[in-house]
Design a protein that fits this description.
Blueprint: H1 3-14, H2 18-37, E1 42-44, E2 48-55, E3 58-61, E4 68-71, E5 74-81, H3 83-90
Antiparallel strand pairs: 1-2, 2-5, 3-4
């Protein structure tokens, strides 16, 4: 699902205009982003947890040149699926 589809479907389900829903979703995403930038985890119990983690610096081999390449440390977002959603996804298996 892309952003436009999310806005359209949410507007249909809530009987709000697409403009109102887009403002709300934009605000939600901005708040979500601000929390992650402040190293605060975002917990949505029905979906999962988003948290910032740091990857250590490491060396990898370039497959073409076979040279070792240094990859610097960086921050990334880690997502952990909630048990509720995991159970729902695996229910039909």
């Amino acid at each position: 699902m892309n952003f436009e589809t999310l806005i359209r479907k949410t507007a249909q389900k809530t009987s709000h205009s697409e403009d109102d829903v887009q403002r709300i979703v934009d605000s939600l995403i901005e708040t979500f982003r601000d929390s992650l930038l402040a190293d605060e985890p975002v917990v949505i119990e029905t979906v999962g947890n988003f948290s910032v983690c740091t990857r250590a610096a490491r060396s990898k081999r370039d497959p073409k040149s076979k040279e070792l390449v240094e990859i610097p440390a960086c921050k990334t977002v880690k997502f952990t699926l909630s048990n509720n959603l995991k159970t729902a996804l695996n229910q039909g298996l």
